[in-house]
Write a structure and sequence with these properties.
CATH topology of the largest domain: Aminopeptidase
Strand content: 25-35%
Number of strands: 12
Length: 335
């Protein structure tokens, strides 16, 4: 078996790569959210100054039998990588996945990075002994953080969304809540980036130690261009202070290739501005804008570290239901 990079612009090879990914992700999880082939292709083909994405595949002769990727931050957290391996269910237990993992580990070490991260989703009932966890531990990874994936069924009655907005409003009269579809306006972008950069520091991350991100307005514009090329619709709501600067942000992405799902991305309120119900206010407002713009969507997917009490409280209040474990694993390397 040979593990190597391949030409991600070769449509036939990339189709094989993506088919293995989909088969692995949907195994025993038929409703799991997955990237479309187009979304994945844009991720690997379009340059990204913030993160380098490398695709690898395992070949038995000319046949692709496994796939993997390794993402390497370029502006911050340059001491780590994060990756994943995929093997179709019918080809498992042949050592393919193990060789792919060790290839990612070697590649990380050769880059001088002492930490590699990986994640896996599985049922609550097997959180302590699921085969994915045992596989990770066999290859030297330790469980470092546990998130809970949750799903909100849509639509939420607009009267309920308005009620949450009105419930929060008396607590943040000094702030202005604004919503945007697609690209953010120039005036809010620097402060939006500042808030976004704090997420890795302020949100619980278990035993994983992150640095603050270093996203700049220029880098975010690059991300917006990639999001649009992937066919996703980005919805963002911010709370701005009296200076007009964002102090709380939330955003969601609606994929063009999956007309039912929406993905909740970041939500964060800066520490000095907490206690004003801004988290509830911006999440309810963003959901209201989503349902007005895309009324046929049926699910919002999100995940939070299981000890992130304030955000879990908001998600439970809004009706998000737990569906599975999202386990984060870490392996420390001698480099």
């Amino acid at each position: 078996m040979d593990i190597r990079t391949f030409d991600v612009f070769d449509d036939d090879l990339f189709h094989s790569y993506n088919q293995i990914y989909r088969a692995a992700e949907l195994f025993e999880r038929p409703d799991a959210p997955v990237w479309s082939e187009h979304e994945a292709a844009v991720t690997f083909r379009k340059p990204d100054d913030a993160e380098h994405w490398a695709a690898y595949a395992a070949f038995d002769g000319d046949t692709m039998v496994g796939s993997s990727f390794l993402a390497s931050p370029q502006l911050d957290n340059t001491h780590m990588t994060w990756g994943a391996v995929y093997v179709a269910p019918e080809l498992r237990r042949r050592g393919i996945g193990g060789e792919l993992v060790e290839h990612l580990v070697r590649t990380t070490a050769e880059a001088g990075r002492p930490i590699i991260l990986a994640e896996a989703s599985y049922d609550f009932a097997r959180r302590d002994d699921h085969p994915y966890r045992r596989f990770a531990e066999k290859h030297g990874f330790a469980l470092a953080s546990t998130e809970i994936s949750r799903v909100l069924g849509l639509p939420v009655p607009e009267t309920q969304l308005q009620a949450w907005i009105e419930e929060a409003a008396p607590h943040h009269t000094a702030y202005k809540v604004e919503s945007y579809v697609g690209d953010l306006p120039d005036h809010i972008l620097p402060s939006f980036c500042h808030v976004t950069n704090q997420l890795a520091l302020d949100a619980p991350t278990g035993d994983i130690e992150f640095e603050a991100e270093a996203i700049t307005p220029e880098v975010w514009r690059q991300k917006e261009a990639k999001i649009k090329e992937q066919g996703r619709t980005l919805l963002t709501t911010v709370a701005a202070d009296e200076r007009g600067e964002a102090v709380a942000v939330t955003n969601m992405a609606a994929p063009g290739d999956d007309p039912a799902k929406v993905f909740q991305w970041a939500t964060l309120v800066l520490r000095g501005h907490r206690g004003h119900r801004l988290g509830l206010a911006i999440k309810a407002r963003n959901l209201l804008e989503l349902q007005r713009l895309l009324p046929d969507r049926r699910q919002v997917w999100t995940s939070n570290e299981e000890h992130n009490g304030p955000m879990l409280d908001i998600n439970v209040k809004m009706g998000f239901e737990p569906v599975e474990i999202l386990a984060e694993f870490q392996r420390k390397l001698d480099v």
